[in-house]
Design a protein that fits this description.
The chain is mainly α. The chain contains six helices and two strands. Helix content is about 80%, strand content about 5%. The longest helix is centred in the last third of the chain and has 40 residues.
Length: about 180
């Protein structure tokens, strides 16, 4: 991996961490916190592929747990799972269909995949880590967990679509991106 690529991924990852720490607010249920940190990760996935996005997500999940204290190791795992599935799926699809329609379809598929995976993860892991009865988690699905994940994904997808090409062109013009993405 060349220095420009590593530097670009590092800068986008740092921006993701800043967004995660500075922009946070609850949605649907008090413990479901929206933060736009997935946007730079989606951009990494589109520019450099899903493996780079997963690596950045892994490190950021640990840093988020350390800096915010929210959820500890469980929160880090759930963040890695949600963002990893979302950015990994979207980036993989975009790499196969490298155009604006491919990006939008990838983001839509990634949004659905994340929502489904997080529904299952909440059903499996919340009873284990938080002692919440599975029936109570099921009762939170429709008013909270499902709409939260879909809404978060849609917001982050829209912003990504609006800024990705401009950012990719800027980085290419500065010599930080070898090809137009």
């Amino acid at each position: 991996m060349d220095t420009k690529r590593i530097t670009t991924i590092a800068v986008l990852s740092a921006f993701s961490l800043v967004l995660m720490l500075l922009i946070r607010f609850p949605m649907f249920l008090p413990f479901l916190i929206y933060e736009p940190g997935d946007i730079p990760i989606l951009i990494i996935s589109f520019m450099f592929g899903p493996a780079s996005a997963l690596g950045a997500t892994f490190i950021l999940s640990i840093l988020m747990a350390v800096f915010t204290g929210l959820g500890g190791p469980f929160g880090a795992f759930m963040h890695f799972l949600a963002t990893g599935v979302f950015a990994g799926t979207a980036g993989y699809f975009y790499q196969k269909h490298h155009n604006k329609v491919g990006a939008i379809k990838g983001l839509a598929i990634g949004s659905i995949a994340m929502t489904v995976v997080m529904a299952g993860a909440n059903l499996i892991f919340n009873p284990i880590f938080y002692g919440i009865p599975r029936e109570q988690v099921l009762q939170m699905m429709l008013p909270g967990i499902l709409p939260f994940n879909l809404t978060k994904a849609v917001i982050n997808s829209i912003i990504t679509v609006l800024i990705y090409k401009k950012l990719a062109n800027f980085l290419r013009n500065k010599g930080l991106l070898k090809q137009i993405n």
